Known about the structure:
Blueprint: H1 6-9, E1 18-20, E2 26-28, H2 56-59, H3 61-78, H4 82-102, H5 114-133, H6 144-153
Antiparallel strand pairs: 1-2
Helix pairs in contact: 3-4, 4-5
Amino acid sequence: MPAEDAHRTQPPPRDAISTPEAEGRSRRATRRFPRFTRDTARPEGGGRAAPGDAPAPARQWPLLVVLSAVALGLLLTALDVFRYGTLLIGAALLAGAVMRWTLPRVGMLAVRSRFTDIATYGILGLSIVLLGLMAQPRPWLVIPFLKGTLHFTVTK
């Protein structure tokens, strides 16, 4: 059998790393990542949150809910209702973490992997809520060992 006809008798490779050549035949490609990336993959759950024929705001409603709550919290903070504003900002981030965990599609609220998004939104939201609860004057949450810690770091 001639060498040029050998590729016609062998079945083409059917694994995840086979790519078509210019002539349409499959060839085995390298498993290395390309030196220059040309595109990025959408994160899991990063598709539209509503059908494609819905208006643009409806397709991104999870992100708009979080951003609206954060904007309202910033407005409350600017209007000198600091504690409620920071609590609302933290609650908005915690709501983003819950939506990222429970909803299959959250649109542009999905930034990285599901785990990374949940951890980031959750840790930041919880931190902001705790800082809002411990804000001076007259904190709503007092953690006793923090006063002793600050006593050693800040002197009068």
